[in-house]
Amino acid sequence: MSSHNEENSDPATPALFDVISPHYDHWSNLLSVGGMHAWHHVAVDRMHLSGNLRVLDVGCGTGTVTRQIASKLGLHGLVVGLDPALGMLDVAKNAPVTANASPIQWVSGSGENLPFDNETFDRVSAEFSLRNMSNWDKGLHEMMRVLKTGGQLTILEMIQPLTRLGIMARQGLNAITARISSPKLNPYQWLGVSLHHAPTIHELRTEAQRLGLTQLAVHQWLGDLVVLLTGTKEPLHADASQLRSSNAIVWGIDGSLTSLRGALWINRFIARDSVVHLVIVLPQSRHAEEIQKTDRQYWRQQHAMAEELLSRGKFHTDVTVLEGDPGPSLVEFAQHVHANMIILGNRHRNDVAAYRQESASRYVSTHSPIPVLLVPTEYEGT
Fold first, then answer.
1. What is the pLDDT of residues 65-112, one digit of tens each?
2. Residue ranges per domain, the chain?
3. Which fold has domain 248-376?
4. Domain made up of 13-233: CATH architecture
5. How many Å apart are CA 70 and CA 92, to the nearest integer?
6. Other C-beta atoms lying within 10 Å of the C-beta of residue 278
7. Structure confidence by residue, pLDDT tens digits, 322-334
């Protein structure tokens, strides 16, 4: 994790989790109406655990799942629980472990920078931790890196839903978390806010396959709000494809990996020395200040990641944060800077997915007086 300064630092989610660590398990199970407990058990069962395996639990939190894994393995396995929040790890270390369980090593660390060698673990698990990473794609890369070829990756996560039932479940979750007003429980508002930074199942599955995960299986609950994805790591074949105008473009960054893939098109097709406006539109927020601060830090990370993806020295970049309705704001901004093109991510939502990213792409496509490029979720290098 970078710690150079506040503008470039990782979000303060560990601080949020430190506050709630003593009662995290209780409230997580309560807010999920008991689902959390059941989903964890299904995920552990799908890991096909047996003795002598080395298992990494990324974002282990209070260690509930880590201890389940250790019990399943028996005495001859090894489990590592990793988390960036020291408060969570303190709770995990002090919780009792069942007899005849594998030894557990508790490690403080970031999922985006795993402190382990390549091909170290037979199983890697991330349960409700991926969306809390400032760069979930990098976290996925890291998990695949430390996973042995032939090993299994298990991801249990709340994602951005695409189905009608999933959208209704998310709306229900948002309604519950938005009404939390107790200072002691304010950090739980992050549960609803964090979904803005979560992938869709298409993004998650596509990226996992691109990294060499095969035999993918997906299980869904609450429509597709909660997803369990498992797969096996196969050797990744080298991709020999190479990525290769307008004077000014507006690149809309909406927190998705799909929108970040706009860099591939910009690097290849936009002329050198063009001005690339990296634009994020933030809606007005009524959440607690610590939630808003954490959310702003996530968006700053999106700008930083986008700039890093552009060919170094090829473009002039301008970073802009707007507030308001994303669609109209992007069109108005593009007109103000006399841009020749707008680039947005298109995550293939259906008509009932009335989220702000989806609404922005629809609005811009129909109201923009200049060309609009909607970047697809799937990308095939040519």
1. 999 999 999 888 999 999 998 888 999 899 888 888 999 999 999 999
2. 13-233, 248-376
3. Rossmann fold (3.40.50)
4. 3-Layer(aba) Sandwich (3.40)
5. 13
6. 23
7. 888 888 899 889 9
